[in-house]
Structures are given as structure tokens and as C-alpha cells.
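Case study.
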Amino acid sequence: MDKNENGSIEKSQFELVGKNLEAAQNIKRPSMSYLQDAFRRLKKNTPSVISFWILVVLIFMAIVGPMISKGLYGHTYRTQHLSLQDQTSILSNQRSLKLSSNSVFNYSKYKPNLRKTQIEFKKVELKAQSGKLGFIIGDKSEASYQGDLKEYKLEINTTSADNWDSIITKLNAEANNMLKKDPAFRGITFKKSGSNLFVETIGVKKFNSTYWLGTDDLGRDLWTRLWEGSRVSFIIAIVSVLFTGLFGVVYGGISGYIGGTSDNIMMRIIEILMVIPDMLYIMLLSIVMPRGITTITIVLAFTGWMGTAILVRGEVLRLKHSEYVLASQTLGANANRVIFKHLIPNCMGPIIVNMTMMIPRMIFAEAFLSFIGLGVPAPYASLGVLVNDGAKIFYQYPHLLIIPSIVLCLIMLAFNILGDGLRDALDPKLRK
Amino acid sequence: MVKFILKRIAFAIITIICIATITFALMKALPGDPFHNPKLKPEMRQALLQKYGLDQPITTQYFKYMSNLAHGDLGLSYKYLNRPVSQVIKESFPKSFALGWRAMAYSAFFGVLFGIIAALKHQKAPDYIIIFISIVGVSVPSIVMGPLLAYYFGVTLGWLPVTVTDSQLSMILPSFTLGLGTLAFVSRLMRSTTLEVLGQDYVQTAKAKGLSTSKIVWSHVIRNAIMPVVSVLGPAFAGIITGSIVIENVFAVAGLGGYFVTTIADQDYSMTMGITLFYAVLIIVSLLVVDIAYGLIDPRLKISSKGGE
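After joint prediction, the assembly is written out as follows.
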């Protein structure tokens, strides 16, 4: 804007715009519904967004994962290859090793690794310089990649002139000899550091290209079982939560809206049911009903609805004297319509939060049932079944526990964080 | 106050009767009867049915069952001859209890402590660490936590024994795992209630009067913030009881929870139901005790009940 010489603003510089009624009616910013607003707030909550995407990925994998391994290698959750049991995702063709004859040295501790491809003798001491020292390398009965049905024997004779250095040299020389004769032997190294003797067979490590995450004790593909199990767990949790939600909403809605004696009786029933902990119901019902995925879903659905019902009742009690309810009633709407068209949609926020928080509880309950032997029956997999099977042989094959546990914990963590985020986002008190 | 207590007790009794009835009905709903074995001669079968009172009409059986329960008799095992359920409970429950009270005590104490620390250091490093611990405690199931802890502290580091014997040291791992969920839950609750109390006017006043932080926390904050925590100790106890079923199996404790899983595998239903009922009564009684204790220590409840129910 130009200023004239003395710096003051002249009246002539202004122009009358007049009233523009149409423009006044325009809404510049798009109007936001409650859910849009909540969603916008949720998007600002980084942990929730990350949790959401983790869940999306996990659910996607639960659907697609088993298909991939089936399409590529024909694995299903129940195909067994007993000869390929207990593989990890890294394979090596090192041969197994055992001491066959030893009249040379004493040791305080004999420490092989899991597959016996290396052995450590702690605190070795020569007891007699002259004698025989032999190892058996490989195993005739080993048919997997880890061996090829061959067995070798490495043996040296020591004389009284030998000390540790010369014994080690002799052993290594003998191993080189054998390797020259048959390259399939792949070699073996002997090392002595301090007072410990360390023996290891040589081999190549490679990624397990058919069983990406390894196999379990029956030679079933862990990758397939993991995602198949996640799918079963997700289905059980989500379906049972939907049922509890549905039943809780109907029960709580009716109880809150009608009020009076019916409300009183309905709430007393819930109070009695609430006192008994969920797990006891779940156990009792699972004992009586035939084992299976359907049973677990029904049982879990039966135990979770009380919390939702109390929540919905509270919300309905709060909302039922609102103007829009009165308006609807005046226009002749019956109870059914008022409850399900007006009241329930208005207390959807807390219900969604409640259902989100319930899913990890259901997954945990399923794992618990599998643990005490009332879970998904044998050939089927669920996360609970996998974790329990893994826990049984954890010391030998840690991957069978750790991999399913990671997925289980991720699901629980993600749902808990997402639930927290949703609660913050849907809380009208925080709305600006 | 008396009215409140009586009402609670009446409620607990009704609940126990309901559960006993449900248990009885479920037992009857089990497919087949326990002596349905084609090898069994009819007269032997009859004798067995008579011994367990299963030849009577169902109403008689029900009243017999209820009166036995009232006398503390939970019935006989169908699997092992002449082994009463109450005997098994008497033998194995003390071992579970030894684990349970330790878990409860440490998780309640550290839960409260962590909650206060987190609230005092709101949105600083200790707060985030404690929130992280509580999220992990809630999200990592004990089935996973148990073997992992046993492996690292018991096998890799070799600090603690992995199976439970009579020594105090062997109790550490199982009770720690057992209490972890409660610890997480209590510290989270304590944090939020403490934050709420810290924002109250009387805390501001105390601060303005120049009281030290420790004095404020001890005599103003804890007393007010701990009430909701007391009220959740009952459910927490229930959680520890069901949790012990898992933990006792992970750490090979010869307690009731460990035995419970065996009865399921054995299909010894009368035993399973008996133990379940025992758990239910235990939980209901503990909820009742917590409820009454809460009523006794919370002055607000006293006033409101004086004002007329």
C-alpha cells in the first residue's frame, strides 16, 4: 500500500466492498466429523502409527506367508520331514565329531556345541605321552545337508617324545593327509589356547533356502507354521472380540436404556459373572466342549463381553437424556431405533478402544489355553502352540521359541500401543 | 459400614454357590460317564457308580455335592482310587502359596515405588524407562518370559537355579516372572494416580509452605494416590493365581498349578473341576477381603455409607 508524503493513510485509499451474504456462508475449511478429527489426531501419534503399520504387515504376512512357502516349496503347516528336523535358518555342512580313543590326556570338562561340530576340552593335561588319540568325524546315519552319510576316522599314535605342540602338529598333518585323499572330508582343525584344547570341523555355512526359519522337531517348516499360527491366533482373537463387542453392546445398550428393575437385575448378573476370573470360565468351558478353534473362539467370546456391557451401559446412561434422543423419541422412534441408530453410534469411541485393548488379551488367553493343554488341537498351529512347543526344547533349539515369541510380543505390543493411541485420539476432552 | 460388609459377604456367598452349581452342571455335561469302559463288568460298574454316588437322581447328587462342599470336601479323583481332591490341595497348595505371596509382595511394593518415581520425574528419562518396563511387562507373556529368564540367569550366567527347591534363591526367578504382569499394571496405575494427586491444590499448598519433596510425597501424595492401587490388589491376586499355573510348569514347581495341568492331560475331570472351584473360592475370598479392607481405609466410602445407601 502506498503512503503519501506525510506518511498518513488517506480515506480515499479504501474501497467499500459491501455485504457479500454468499461469501459469508462459505466455509473455508472443510468440516471435520468426530471420526475424521480423531483420525487426524491419531496420525500425529507416532508410536500408534508405527504399531498400526506393524499390525498391517503382520496381518498381511499371516494371509500371504503360508501361500508363499506353499507355492515355492509345497510346505504346509502339517507336512513333516522327519529327516530334516530341528534345522535353523543357517545351515552348515560341518561334520559332527566325537572322541573315539584317548589314552593321551585328561580333561576337566568336555564341552561340545549343539550339533557337536566343535568340542572344547577344558584344562587338558598330558597323562602319558605315548598312546592313541582318535576322533570319529561324520555320522553314517546323517542324511540331511549337515552330513552326507560318510564316516571318517582320524587316529594318531603318540610317542614318549611328544609334547602338546608336536601332538597338535601331528593331528593337523593327519587331517591334511585325509583331506588330500578325499576332498569330501572337508577338514578339521585342532587348536590349543592356554590349557584348553579346541577341535572344530570345517564346513561352509549357507542360508537355509527351503526352510527360511528352520524346522521344528517333526521337520515341519517354521515359516509356514508361524504365519499359519498367526492367522489362527488373529482369527480367534478378532472373531471373539467382535462377538463380545456385539453381545456387550446389545446387553449394555438395553440395560442402560430401559433402566429400572431390568437394569438392576441385568447388572447384578454381570457383577456375579465378573467376580469369577476369565481364566476359570475359559478352562471350565474348554474342558467340557470338544477341542478346536471354534470352541476356543466361543469360549473367549463368552468371557469378554461383561466389560463391554458395563462400558456401553455407562455411556448410554450418560447419553439417553440428550436432546437428539428426546427428538427421536418425540418423532415416534421405538427403543430399538433409538438405541441402535442414535445411542450406540455416539458411544462408538470407547467401544472401539475397548475392543482394540481386548484383542491382545484374547491372544494371550489363547496362548494360555494352549499351554495348559486345552488349546488348538495337534496338527494345527497357533502362536500359543508354537511358543509352548518351542519352550519345551528351548535349551537345545532356541529359534523355535524366540521366533514365534517375537511375533506374539509384537502383536501384543502393537495392539496395546495402538489402543492407548486410540483412547487419546477418541477422548473428546482432548479435542481442540 | 456393617451393612456394607454384610452385603459384600452375602454377595460373595451367592457367587460361590453360583460357581459351584455351574461346576456341577459342567461335570454332568461331560460326555459319557467316567466308568464308561467296555471291559468293565456291569456289576463292577454298578459298584463303582454306587461308590461315587453316581447312581442317585441328579437332584440328590446336587444336594449331596453342595453339602460336601460346605464341609470342605471337594470329592474324589475319578482317576486315582481314593485320592480326595482336598488332600491334593492340602499337599501342593503351600508350595504355590510360597511363590504367590513373594510375587505379590514384590510386585506391589516395586509397582508403587516405580509409579511414584515415574510421576515425580514426569516426562524425563526415569519416567520413560518405567513406562517401557510396564509396556514390556504387559506385552510379554509369562510363557515367553519364564524360559528366557531361566535360560539367561540360570544357564548362561549360572547365577540362579532354574528349578525350585527349598532354598530361597531358587524362588527368585519364578516369583519375579510371576509378579511381572502385576508390577507393570500397578506401576502404570500408580503413575497416573500420583500425577493426578500432584496436580491437586493441597500439594501446591504444601509446596508453598516449604515442605520438602520427600515429606510431601510421604504424607500427602502416597496416602491419596495409593487408594486405587489397593482396590486393584484383588484382581491382581487373581491374575497371580492363574499366572502361577503357567509359571509352576515352566519352573517345575510341584505346586497346585503344576498339578492342575497334569489333571487336564490325565482327563481327571473331577480333580480339574475341584481345583478350579478351589481357585474360584480363593479368588472370591481375596476380592472380598480387599473390598472390605478398602471400605475400612477409605474415609470417603465411610461417609457416603453413613449418608444412607
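Observations recorded in class. The first strand of chain A starts at residue 90 and ends at 92. The mean pLDDT of chain A is 80. We will return to this complex in the next lecture.
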